[in-house]
Write a structure and sequence with these properties.
Blueprint (H helix, E strand, L loop, with lengths): L23 H34 L4 H7 L4 H21 L8 H36 L13 H19 L9
Helix pairs in contact: 1-2, 1-3, 1-5, 2-4, 3-4, 4-5
This protein binds protoporphyrin IX containing FE.
């Protein structure tokens, strides 16, 4: 017999209709994908931070670190989109809804904002850093136009930690009362 997500997981959840009941293993599979994606996202942001901050402490690392930075774009975008898609699916198949509870709606906005920042701001910055690193490695004079990339890892890790706290805490509060 196939187990289906419980309709009333807690007394207070009794009012929450499930939009799309799915087998329990599907919901758990989505949760695993979601957790792995968000954990990998935080890990990649930490790697981004290391590559950005180490050259600030020791300039001899600048060429190496800046050449590696552009490689992080696609992995970062992939895990950010995976988090968005799996989180959205979880919202649809669980009693939490997509924009029913504030903590889910806030995460949705944060995730969308971060995906936008990755594409619009981070990508050009990483490409500039790569060009700068390659020029230094080729022995060309330092143009001095070093991209300032300390904000992206700082902002992203902070928002992802806030999202993780919200997810575990699941504070009460609905977008609109029903
Ligand atoms: C912004 C990055 C995100 C992070 C770091 C994150 C983190 C997490 C974590 C750690 C959990 C597990 C909580 C637990 O089981 O106790 C979780 C669950 C959940 N997340 Fe996210 N999440 C993110 C984005 C999203 C988005 C964009 C959505 C929906 C639009 C979403 C919807 C959900 C839902 C509904 C659950 C509960 C699943 C369940 O109880 O079965 N998340 N998230």
């Amino acid at each position: 017999m196939t187990a289906v997500t419980a309709v009333t997981a807690s007394p207070s959840a009794g009012r929450d209709p499930i939009r799309l009941p799915v087998p329990r293993r599907v919901r758990l599979g989505l949760l695993v994908v979601h957790l792995v994606a968000t954990a990998a996202w935080i890990g990649l942001d930490v790697a981004l931070g290391v590559l950005v901050f180490v050259p600030m402490l020791d300039a001899s690392w600048t060429a190496a670190c800046h050449q590696v930075l552009p490689l992080l774009f696609w992995p970062l975008l992939t895990v950010a989109l995976l988090s968005l898609v799996s989180g959205t699916a979880l919202g649809v198949v669980t009693r939490w809804g997509l924009v029913r509870h504030r903590w889910v709606a806030i995460k949705l906005v944060m995730n969308l904002l971060l995906v936008t920042l990755i594409v619009v701001l981070l990508r050009p910055g990483l490409e500039d850093a790569g060009r700068h690193g390659r020029a230094l490695a080729a022995g060309l004079p330092d143009s001095g136009e070093v991209p300032r990339l300390f904000m992206p890892p700082t902002v992203s890790v902070t928002l992802l930690v806030v999202a993780t706290v919200l997810s575990v805490w699941k504070p009460r509060g609905r977008v609109r009362s029903t």
